[in-house]
From TrEMBL:
The lineage of its organism: Bacteria, Pseudomonadati, Pseudomonadota, Betaproteobacteria, Burkholderiales. Its EC number is 3.4.23.-. InterPro entries: Aspartic_peptidase_AS (IPR001969), Clan_AA_Asp_peptidase_C (IPR011969), Peptidase_aspartic_dom_sf (IPR021109), Retropepsin-like_bacterial (IPR034122). Keywords: Hydrolase, Protease, Signal. The keyword Chloroplast does not apply. It comes from the Bacteria. This is TIGR02281 family clan AA aspartic protease. GO terms for biological process: proteolysis.
């Protein structure tokens, strides 16, 4: 067989394999209004505008806090803080990385769960520990009154608070156990992810993307 024809045949055999390569896991890690989203595709962050693609994943639409993506020949709806969409065997993943995108005002927020109950988090590198308002703590079913009573400083002066240990704190696919937290009076807009959680991670930031890599 002529060499040129042989090369053409080999290319013909190779191209379908490359074209058929598909991601195995896609997760929504942030939204930039109604025009773009931060997707974690097989562990790598990608910012996609609606209608664009990366690594075989197309962002079809953004609606009601969810992202509609197309990959592996089908469409899926992804929600912040939910388990990733997957193709192939549903094997449990030991994820060690959290990728967050900055929202309005440059703040990093995300959905997650405390002891299996969904809640919203705000990264606060200036907070000593995870901080939860009493109203949210009651919604989460935390028995904070059994915790150690301490005094904390608020805008209105010293106030009683309760130091507790959270059995499970999950963000995306990453779960950290036995996290110190403080329950403070009143209502906080979100649970503050302070250093009792953040110190478990190696943190790096590139522009508007923050990556947390679990240390242990």
């Amino acid at each position: 067989m002529p060499r040129l024809a042989l090369r053409a045949l080999l290319l013909g055999l190779t191209l379908p394999v490359l074209a058929g390569a598909q991601p195995t896991q896609v997760q929504l890690n942030g939204m930039l209004g109604a025009r773009a989203a931060l997707l974690l595709i097989d562990g790598e962050p990608h910012t996609l505008a609606v209608g664009t693609s990366a690594n075989g994943v197309k962002l079809v639409a953004l609606e009601d806090g969810s992202a509609i993506v197309e990959f592996g020949g089908r469409r899926q709806s992804l929600t912040l803080g939910a388990a990733p969409g997957r193709i192939g065997p549903q094997k449990p993943l030991q994820s060690r990385q959290i990728v967050l995108s900055a929202g309005p005002g440059g703040h990093f927020t995300t959905m997650g769960a405390i002891n299996g109950h969904a809640t919203s988090f705000l990264v606060d590198t200036g907070a000593t520990s995870v901080a939860i308002g009493q109203i949210e703590a009651e919604k989460l079913g935390l028995r904070y009154l059994a915790g150690r009573r301490v005094v904390t400083q608020t805008a209105n002066g010293p106030a009683p608070a309760y130091q507790i240990l959270i059995g499970s704190l999950r963000v995306g696919e990453v779960e950290v156990r036995d996290v110190e937290a403080i329950v403070i009076p009143g209502l906080l807009g979100q649970v503050l992810l302070g250093n009792s959680f953040l110190n478990r991670f190696q943190m790096r930031r590139e522009n508007d993307v923050m990556t947390l890599e679990l240390r242990y």
